[in-house]
Every structure is written in structure tokens, then in C-alpha cells.
Amino acid sequence: MDRKHDNGKEIDITEPEELVVIVKKIKSIPKIKPSRLLKLKVSFYSLFPGFALFGDTGTFKSGKAGMPAGKSTDRYRSPAFRYSTAAASVLIAVLLVFSGLTVAARNSNPGDALYSLKRARESLELAFTFDRSMEMEKTLIFAEKRLAELDFMLENDRLDPDGITAVIDDYKSKTALVAHAIQTGELDGAGNLKSRFNALVTAENNIEKRLVAAGPAGTMKPAGNAHVTVKDVEGGLSFKDGGDSISGSTDSRGIYSFNAVVTNPGEINDMEVVVEAEGRTAVVPAFSPVHSVKCGPFEAEVYPPPGTLELNQSDSFSLTVLNEGRAASGTTVRLCDSTGTSSIEGRGAAASLITDENGTVSFEITKTSVEQVSRISLDILDNGWNPLGEILAVGGVNTGGADSKASGKVEARATKSPAGYENIVLDNGLVRVSVNGGSGDIITAITRNGETAGPVTDPGVQSGSATADNGRKLEGPVLTFTGPDSAVYEVSHEINSENRTLTKIYSVSLKKDQPYATIDCTIQADGTGWKSEPALDLYRLEFRNGSRVSISGKETKQPGDEKAAVVSFNPGKPYAAAESAGGLSFIACPAGFAEYPDSWVLGRGYLDMRLESSRFQNGSIVKVSALVTAADPKDARKLELESMKTGGVAPGMDPVAGVSRTGFAVRTRPECEELRKGEQRFTITVFKEYEKLFD
After folding, report:
1. pLDDT tens figures, 270-292
2. Angle at 582 (CA atoms; ends 577, 584), nearest 5 degrees
3. Is the pLDDT of residue 380 over 80?
4. Chain center to CA of 50
5. What are phi and psi of 30, to 5 degrees?
6. Cis peptide before 477 (omega within 30 of 0)
7. CB proximity list for 85: less than 8 A, separation 6 or greater
8. Which range, 131-135, 285-289, 494-498, is most confident?
9. Are 528 and 499 in contact (CB under 8 A)?
10. Which of 335, 376, 331 is nearest to 354 (CA)?
11. Rounded to whole angstroms, how far apart are CA atoms 105 and 109?
């Protein structure tokens, strides 16, 4: 690696990158089209090389060995000519030396010796591609190769976080370029490219699910410089000086290594790791937590696999019991936490439950302490209690953030205004949603951490009218459901014209532990004439003029006059955000719902979600969902990514397992079953559950 200077700034640059820099400099030289006379002269003197080229006046003179004579030779001594010649010579030499290696590197993968040459060769190809459409075609091909490399890493257990991060970063940069080219419409005949891009997004989601299933090294970022304490709970290990714990810090890759003597291999699985980093303290099992057991005729499994539960917040699990391979329906089971660091079904450290006809029973666990991993055993009542042993090892995390003070339940209040309208407030301790009856609002205000977003309105309805005036009929808000875990209210808008009726029912829900509200809009179209209008606007999110607005992650300028602008979104990322005065008003349409918006309409101080009216005809029903919240800017990225990928699952929830993921996960080598008596070198890698490699 060399040290180079760029506009006076010293930077690091590798040899392949240096080669690309040279190519770009050559590529930037202005193209000069030779005159017909010059072409004729070059052709003639290529047949008669005894003549020299240009003289003082640009005419040809005879020279020595075909070299230019007279003052014309000065140009061949100029710095510019020598630089261009040297650059071209270096380029040709390097291409000749490495041409064979780059061919061999085409099928290399991350971790192979020739992989860097493969990536360098791709950069050279792009640098020498002058046609924009062809450049985007190659960029998409290389993005497809990155996903193929991730597939190879999964198949061959090469789950190195650094390697995965490098591959994903390149994949993201290339897909962003292609998405931008598609969005701006700068490419001719981009239909096939867009279709392939959408297929690539689908493949990306499949790869990510496989990475999740492969463990923390496949999806989570390493926790570098974290303080780690490894504890022996049952006397299976002896650390330095005979103690029962050892402490240290992870390196930049999240790795902490230590020596220990295995004194009792049968108890080694109870080893625990306490991690402290970034204001979070967590205790997690050192080895993959158990979530299934088998004893005698009984088999039992818990879904989803346990994660690190946030302190004083509950997560739901499902236990399925089989007796000789058949569903153990109507069976009494007992779950008991021997450590006393959690509650089960809110009943303390033990609870007895009865399975349904499928042999399944659901239950909640609340982590009440992060002093120790909760180890939950299962007993089955069948002519007496049959102990099956430990079925859950549940870690815990204390984030120390404001959100951890949430009550864990939803409060709903409905009061009558002096005009007789209902005013409704939904509050779960994380976010507060309010709507004023008679205003025509879907949401009047939504507040989180002192920041307020909104209102959210129907652009087709003017506020201040709850009558049938002007062909509009407004009903609600009406509180339709209340419970400790969620609450819902509805607002109905009916708009009539000469030949059609449009009914839009907005259902606004707030759930516990979710720092956003969900808006479900069900639209029924009756009548004819729907194609007479170009589009239908569904939601309008209002914010302050001058806010920073981003569509699909790209900052977009607001129009300078009263005219609105229609803005498309990147495929697979139909979200928008508006940040102002340190707070952020955010709205997203997560993947997984029946319909997506076709575009956003951006005006001065508002965003509309738009559907093409061609989707509607007499009797058609369309359902579109969205999220809306107020948040700190630092939380926006996490919120939008989680909502995009999980179809409305709460931020911090694992897209596969569905368990709160706000703490840490560890990978220990050697594995528990590989341990033997004697001194062992342990390597523990710590990962952040709340930061994904694909973020």
C-alpha cells in the first residue's frame, strides 16, 4: 500500500486502486477527432516509413529512421507527452503481466488469493466502458456476482464478518448506482434492467434469510472494543489463577481470546458472557442456546429460538410437545426458571400450562435481571412429572435508553370535545398518537422522545367538515379496539362525484414496544370514470417548510413554488423521511403488504403517497399500509430498514425469529461438543444484534 496525495491530502491507495486511477486519468483526456488530411498522411507514411513526420510548419520532412525532425521533436520531450507515454506504458505492462492471473481470478471467491485481482479486473472493465447503458449492465452483473459469492460463503461455511461486509458494501454501492439510473430514467430500454434488478432484490432477501439462519457471523456487525467477562457457572472451567471468571476487551473484529482449563466437560455448556458496549449491558450464553429437548417418548421444541431479551419487556414463544411422534394435546406442562432471573406468563419463575389440540401452547417470558442467563427447564405431567431438562437459555440486555422505560402496554383514551366529537389518544410509553374529531385528520400528532410529527391527512378531504357538504362524508374517529397489547381507532372518508364513489377507511393501530403507528387504508371504488384522473393521493404527511426530505434514502429538493413534484422511489425501497430542527418525521411503506405506492408527491411542507388510478375500477378494493412516527435522526436508519424488510415488524425484531434483538450475540470456538479435558484456547467473537451487515 502506497501513500499518495490528492489535492494536497495524503491518502492510502492500493496497487489495484492505483491502476484504476491511472485508467480514469487517461479516460479523462479530451477526445480529439483527427482530420481527414491527418488520416491520409498517417496511412501514406505507414507504407513509406522512411519519411519523417511534421516539420516546423506542420509539413512533412525527411528524418532519421522515420523520427520527426526539426523543432517538431520538442513535443516529444514535453512533460505532457512523457506523462501520457509513461502512463500508457505502465498500463500496458501491468495488463500484460496480470492478464493471465485475472482470467484465473474470474471464479475466485472471498478468502481466495486471487479475489482482489477479480475485483480489480471488474473496476478496470467499468473504467473502460464508455456507454452508460452498458456500464449499468455490467454493474448489475457484478452485483449479481456479489450475491453469488455470499451464497458460496454460506455453502462453504466461510462466514467471516469482514469478508461478508466487504462483499455486501460492494453489492450495495453497485445496486445503488443501478437503482439511481433506473429511477432517473437516463437509460434507453431499461425495462429488462429494471426487471433483473427487482429479481436481484428478491434474491437479496433470500440470501439474508439464509445468513440469519446461519448465525450471528452471517448477519451482525462485530462489537469491537467491547468489555467482556466470561463466567463459569457450574464449575466446568478453571481460568487463570484458578478463578471462575476472566475479563478483557474485544479487538476491532469483536474477538476476545483466552486460555482456560476444562475441569468438567459435562458442565461446560453453562458458560456465560457479560458484554458491555455502547451503553448496553448484556448477559448471553457462551454457546448456542438450547430450544429443543427429547426424553423418552416426549419431544418438545420452542419457537422462535431464544435471543437476548430486553430488560423488563416481554417476548412471546410457542412450545410444541409430541408424544411418540404425535401431538400431545391437552397435556399439562411446567416451565421453571431455576435462576429466578425471569418471569413466565407474569407468574414469577414458574408456570403450568395446557397444550391445545396441536400439542402447542403459547407463553411470554419477561427478563427481570441481567445478572445471569435465565435457564428454563420443562416438565411434562404424565403419570407424574417427567423432567425433560433445560429447553431455553435466555440472555438479557439493559439498553439504558429512554425507550426501556416504556410501560409495556398500550393506554387508549377517548374524550368528547365541546362540539361533540371524539378526541382519541393512544400511548404505549414509546410513542403517543392523537387525533382530534372533526378535524378530518387521520393522525393529528404523533410524539416520540419530545419530537412531534404530523399531521397525517387525506389530501382529498378538506379539514373542518364532518358533513356531506361538497360530496364528502367524514365519520370518526371511533375507538374500535382496546387491550393491554394494542389499540385501534378508525376514520372513514367518503367522497362522491357524478359518476363514482370512493370510500377510504383508515385504521390506525398502536402496539406495545413499537415506536411507530401503523395506518391501514382500505379503499373501495364504485362507479365509472376512474381513468379520467392520473392518480389518487392517499396520505399527506405534513412537516415544516425547509426540512431535509429524502426519498428512498436520497435527499430530494422541495419545489421552490406552490407546484408539487412527483418523485419515484427506488425498487424495493418505497419510503420517505423529512428531517427538521433536529427531529425527524418519518413515513414508510414496508415490504410485505398487498400494495405499494407508485410514487411520492413532494410539495412545500408535505408528502403525499400516490397510487395510479388505473388500479381502480367499479367494485375494486385496494389495501395499502404505512408506518408513521417521530424519531431522533440517529434512529431513522434502523427504523426504515427494519420496516422495509420485515413487513411491519417492530424495529429491533428479528425478521426470521420475531424476537427482540437489541443486545449482543456471541460465537465461541471451539464448539461445546469439541471440548476435551486439558487446557484450551477459547476464542469468543461478540456481535451486535442491533446492527446488521446489510444495513
Report:
1. 889 999 988 889 999 988 777 88
2. 25
3. yes
4. 67
5. -60, 140
6. yes
7. none
8. 131-135
9. yes
10. 331
11. 9
Q: How far apart are CA 132 and CA 145, in angstroms?
A: 20
Q: What is the C-alpha to C-alpha distance for residues 453 and 460, in angstroms, rounded to an integer?
A: 20
What pLDDT digit, counting tens, does each position of 435-477 carry?
988 888 899 888 877 777 778 888 877 543 434 455 677 888 9
How far apart CA 160 and CA 110 sit, in angstroms, is: 9
DSSP summary character for residue 278: T
- How crowded is residue 101: how many other Cβ atoms within 10 Å of its Cβ? 14
Integer CA distances (angstroms), 529 to 468, 611, 620, in order? 21, 16, 13
Q: Are 644 and 692 in contact (CB under 8 A)?
A: no
E strand or H helix at 95, and its extent? Answer: helix 79-105
Of 328, 335, 341, 309, which is closest to residue 390 (Cα–Cα)?
335
Cβ-Cβ contacts under 8 Å for 156 (sequence gap 6 or more): none
Place of cell 437459555: 393
Looking at residue 51, what is its pLDDT? 45
Q: Strands 472-482, 486-497: parallel, antiparallel or unpaired by DSSP? A: antiparallel
Model confidence pLDDT, tens digit, residues 34-78: 566 655 555 544 444 444 444 444 443 444 444 444 444 555 455
Return all residues near 457 (Cβ < 8 A) that are at least 6 apart. 440, 441, 442, 463, 539, 540, 542
Q: What pLDDT was estimated at residue 16? A: 52
The secondary structure of residue 266, as a DSSP letter, is: G
Q: Could you count the other beta carbons within 10 Å of the beta carbon of residue 655? A: 18
Note if the bond before 304 is cis, omega within 30 degrees. Answer: yes
pLDDT, tens digit, 9 for 90 and up, residues 625-675: 777 877 655 555 555 544 444 343 333 334 334 344 678 888 888 887 777
Tell me the C-alpha to C-alpha distance, in Å, between residue 195 and each of 198, 208, 227, 615.
Answer: 5, 20, 47, 20
- Residue position matching grid coordinates 501514406: 44
Contact call for residues 71 and 2 (beta carbons, < 8 A): no
Express each pLDDT in 523-550 by its tens digit. 887 776 656 556 777 888 887 777 778 7
Distance CA 152, CA 606 (A): 45
Q: CA-to-CA distance for 683 and 668, rounded, in angstroms?
A: 6
Tell me the percentage of the chain whose pLDDT exceeds 70.
71
Place of cell 484456547: 681
Contact of 159 with 222, CB cutoff 8 Å: no
Angle at CA of residue 577, ends 399 and 445, nearest 5°: 80
3-state secondary structure at position 443: strand
| DSSP labels, 25-49 | HHHTSPP-PPPHHHHHHHHHHHH-T
